[in-house]
Design brief:
single chain; alpha/beta; 9 helices; about 50% helix
Length: about 290
């Protein structure tokens, strides 16, 4: 991607080097709904409900390690993330104006190891995630290294896709789609709720593609091979691919992010059309997604 001279977002909070320790405060209610809203984690078919505390509120007790020094690579990733977030702000501000709406940009928190969000405590194991409770994206930048070295899904546009996907969930939140989906999921069986989750994730993939289309229109940011990097990443984080890698077989009823083919299809659709109206993943029959 061509990002030279591009601005950096001011909506970034750097908590890298924080201990991430928290202490529980018993007897606080109401957090369950926020945790359901935090289902939108990134990859591995993982469910953040297993790592986000569901029963307590938390008071943050984070300390910055005096010996923490980010590497040059990590600083490069941090600057990259700030530029990509700025690009999503520019694109979605304009897209919302077309709909007669006002875009409210999300915040981004950079962390290492573990972090406290309005949706509970999470570790890096869940991957990047979005919490609608505080309208914030959370990312441990080491995830980019994992994508490249462990999954063969590297490249700057692949990394940008990660951020744009989480911003896609923020777009869903602002449009009311995310809360509607989670309300329906709360009334469904586990297998049906997983299907609703897949629909939600595929739309976020589509929105990531829409961002890429308009970012390129605005700034000429895409270079040859960029879209292919994103599609490769999408193929490597399909539920079927990840489950087969982990256990040798796939369990479709447990899918909650979509197959590799589905994720590639919806990302590509967004990137080729750039039109939000083509991103309805909730109306088609599940077999036609």
């Amino acid at each position: 991607m061509k990002l030279n001279g591009r601005r950096f977002s001011n909506n970034v909070e750097d908590r890298r080097g924080s201990s991430g320790r928290t202490k529980a405060i018993a007897g606080f209610g109401g957090i369950g709904g926020l945790i359901i809203a935090a289902l939108v984690v990134w990859m591995s078919g993982g469910n953040p409900l297993s790592v986000l505390n569901q029963n307590s509120s938390f008071a943050t007790s984070e300390e910055i390690r005096s010996d923490y020094k980010p590497t040059a690579q990590e600083e490069e990733y941090a600057n990259f993330a700030k530029q990509i977030l700025a690009g999503t702000e520019d694109v979605w501000t304009e897209e919302f104006e077309k709909m007669g709406l006002t875009y409210r940009p999300p915040k981004m928190v950079l962390f290492t190891g573990a972090v406290q969000s309005a949706c509970g405590q999470a570790t890096s194991a869940v991957g990047p995630f979005y919490c609608s409770g505080d309208e914030t994206l959370y990312i441990d930048l080491s995830f980019f290294d994992q994508m490249e070295k462990q999954m063969g899904a590297g490249g700057d546009f692949a990394f940008a896709y990660v951020i744009a996907h989480e911003v896609g969930h923020h777009v869903q939140h602002l449009l009311g789609t995310l809360s509607d989906a989670h309300q329906q999921m709360a009334r469904m069986s586990e297998s049906e709720a997983n299907k609703m989750s897949v629909r939600t994730e595929l739309q976020a993939d589509f929105y990531a593609g829409v961002w890429a289309y308009h970012d390129n229109q605005m700034f000429g940011s895409l270079e040859p091979g960029d879209i292919e990097e994103g599609l490769n990443a999408a193929s490597k984080i399909g539920d079927d691919y990840l489950q087969k890698q982990a256990q040798g077989y796939a369990v479709p009823d447990s899918f909650n992010h979509g197959t590799s083919a589905q994720r590639v299809r919806w990302l590509e659709k967004g990137a080729s059309t750039g039109n939000i109206k083509y991103g309805d993943t909730f109306t088609p029959s599940y077999s036609n997604l």
